[in-house]
């Protein structure tokens, strides 16, 4: 055999062996492909409203439904299917406040009314309902609606009195329960020609309210739903001996 052919064959064998070694080294460094299966999130069935439920409206079976809810997002106040009879127990309940479509049903927003009237069911525990006969001039022009918050102003005496007939704030941030016989918070109107406004007060404040109603005149001032960014400066003309009740607190 020709020497040159033998040399060429040897070089080819060496090159092939080197390529084989390199291929083995590359196979060792390639990481295996891992197939990761997605973890299925655990859910719990929660009772939610499937329509908007107004304050004072009775709950019906067709106004609620069970939906799957992430277990980690379930709150202790939610009603879950761990007690399937809980939905049936709501048959005689009324809503204390608006429950929007898709909102979980919680007991804090419900009132059982098996043996009570509707108004007694939506009053906050421990509070009392008092009524004031008003006119557009004493009730913010009729723009006070159920669910609003108002201040109650008292005007006593006359021009010959020591106070000179000045109006004074007696109660602040009082909840309006009803206007006339309308108690729903979403009344579909921005104005009610009110005659009677029912308010929610603490027991002792209700006594003061009734006494003031018979000894002077009371007016309602509508409050904004937004809180001010800074502290409001009180008028320097306000008497220092005025006692202001802020939603049941002196």
Features:
single chain; about 250 residues; alpha+beta; six-stranded mixed β-sheet; two-stranded antiparallel ribbon; 3 helices; 10 strands
Question: What would your notes on this structure say?
Answer:
Strands 5, 6, 7, 8, 9 and 10 form a six-stranded mixed sheet that branches. Residues 235-242 have low confidence and may be disordered. The chain is of the alpha+beta class and 250 residues long. The N and C termini lie far apart (119 Å). The chain has helices spanning 3-29, 118-122, 203-215, and strands at 43-49, 64-70, 93-95, 110-112, 128-133, 149-156, 167-179, 196-201, 216-222, 245-246.
Write a short abstract of this structure.
The protein has 250 residues and is an alpha+beta fold.
Indicate the topology:
Layout: H1 3-29, E1 43-49, E2 64-70, E3 93-95, E4 110-112, H2 118-122, E5 128-133, E6 149-156, E7 167-179, E8 196-201, H3 203-215, E9 216-222, E10 245-246
Parallel strand pairs: 7-10
Antiparallel strand pairs: 1-2, 3-4, 5-8, 6-7, 6-9, 7-8
The major sheet is characterized as: 6 strands, mixed
**Mean pLDDT metric:** 78
The number of helical segments is 3
The separation of the N and C termini measures: 119 Å
The percent of residues in helical segments reads 10-25%
Judging from the principal axes of the Cα atoms, what is the shape? elongated
What Rg do the Cα atoms give?
36 Å
What amount of the residues lies in strands?
15-25%
Give unreliable regions as ranges.
235-242
Order of helices and strands: HEEEEHEEEEHEE
**Counted beta strands:** 10
Give the structural class. Answer: alpha+beta
